[in-house]
Amino acid sequence: MIDHEAVDLSNLQRYVLAGQADVGMSKAALASAALRSTELDVEAHPVKWAD
Length: 51
Known about the structure:
The chain is mainly alpha-helical.
């Protein structure tokens, strides 16, 4: 999972894995933590994707 952005109040309504307490946290880290409770093998990379 690659996403360089942090959760912000302006995008909180679009990011279902986060609540107000998660503002400022890495989106990739939050998604990775949520998916670890499944059978999936997920690694978080809080960086910007570049060509």
